[in-house]
Structures are given as structure tokens and as C-alpha cells.
């Protein structure tokens, strides 16, 4: 299964959030063998950017692991609103 998490980021918080997400993803790679990606829309909308973390081919329960990591690395304080997480599976 693949996990996608997207959220809004204020311009002023992008640099700090990038550092936090990069550290979190490096930790998740080391501990869980995932190959995360970090993306954002090419243009901001309404003064904020939309970012997306992609975690391809993760095991069941990884969403809980990710939620814990998000809290540990302080990401909620750097986002403009909630994170939205969706899981997709191959057909």
C-alpha cells in the first residue's frame, strides 16, 4: 500500500518545516526501510503552499508510525491546518 499525506504550509514556515520533515523522513527510512518523497504544488494558493509526503509500498500500520513521528518532530506547529492522510492499494 502507498500512503499520501498532504497539508498546507505558510510561506514563513516552509524552511523550518522542510528541515523537520527531512529529519523525520530520514529517521523513518533508517528505522522502517521506507523510501519517502516530499513534494509541493508548483504555485501557492491563498498565500499558502500545499505539500505532500509520499510513502510508497509501506506495511499495514505505518500510518500510526507516521502519526507518532509527526508529533515527535513538531510538524503540527508548522502547518496551516490539519494533515490529511490517505492510503491507496494496487489493483
Fold blueprint:
Blueprint: E1 2-10, H1 14-32, E2 37-40, E3 48-55, H2 62-72, E4 84-88
Radius of gyration: 13 Å
Major sheet: arrangement of strands: 2-3-1-4
Tell me how many strands there are.
4
CATH topology: Alpha-Beta Plaits
CATH architecture name? 2-Layer Sandwich
Distance between the termini: 10 Å
CATH first level: which class?
Alpha Beta
Low-confidence stretches: none
Shape descriptor reads globular
Mean pLDDT: 96
Into which percentage range does the β-strand content fall?
A: 25-35%
Helix content: 25-40%
Instruction: Give the biggest sheet.
Output: 4 strands, antiparallel
Provide structural commentary.
- The structure is a single chain.
- With 91 residues, the protein is an alpha+beta fold.
- It has one domain (2-88): Alpha-Beta Plaits.
- The protein is 33% helix and 29% strand.
- The chain contains 2 helices and 4 strands; from the N terminus they run E-H-E-E-H-E.
- The chain has helices at residues 14-32, 62-72; strands at residues 2-10, 37-40, 48-55, 84-88.
- It has a 4-stranded antiparallel beta sheet with strand order 2-3-1-4, covered by helices on one side.
- Strand 2 (37-40) and strand 3 form a beta hairpin.
- The mean pLDDT is 96.
Amino acid at each position: 500500500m502507498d500512503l499520501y499525506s498532504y497539508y498546507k504550509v505558510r510561506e514563513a514556515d516552509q524552511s523550518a518545516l522542510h528541515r523537520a520533515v527531512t529529519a523525520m523522513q530520514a529517521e523513518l527510512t533508517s528505522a522502517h526501510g521506507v523510501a519517502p518523497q516530499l513534494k509541493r504544488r508548483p504555485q501557492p494558493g491563498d498565500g499558502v503552499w500545499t505539500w505532500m509526503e509520499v510513502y510508497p509500498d509501506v506495511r499495514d500500520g505505518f500510518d500510526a508510525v507516521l502519526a507518532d513521528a509527526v508529533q515527535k518532530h513538531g510538524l503540527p506547529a508548522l502547518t496551516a491546518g490539519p494533515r490529511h492522510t490517505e492510503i491507496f492499494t494496487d489493483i
